[in-house]
Amino acid sequence: MDDVHRLDHLSSRVPGLLARRVEALRAGLLLSVVTGHPALAAVEGIDTLRLPPVDDAAARRLLADAAPPGRAAVEEALELAAGNS
Question: Using an 8 Å Cβ cutoff, are 15 and 31 in contact?
């Protein structure tokens, strides 16, 4: 779930509820939120793994591996992301 910090107050409670429901399963939940944002409170008490930002070189490698052949798709995706890789 991307940009959890943009959810309205009621919706922001859903990721934490979902994380607690799947805790006993062999499943994971991937969320993105701005570091230090109050939306992180929704997952308080849940095991978290904070990942460092992906630099441009790593983003290019990830896209090159996942994108269809041809550099145009990779360059277009990076341009559309505008530094939000």
Answer: yes
Q: How many CB atoms lie within 10 A of CB 17?
A: 10
Contact 66, 36 (CB under 8 A): no
Q: Quote the CA–CA distance of 57 and 28 in Å, as a whole number.
A: 26
Residues 6+ apart with CB under 8 A from 35: 50
- CA-angle at 28, arms to 23 and 34, nearest 5°: 105
The pTM score is: 0.51
> Token pair of 11, please?
């919706």
pLDDT in tens, 40-81: 777 777 777 777 888 888 877 877 777 666 667 667 777 777
Alpha-helical (H) ranges within 1-85 are 14-22, 56-66, 71-81
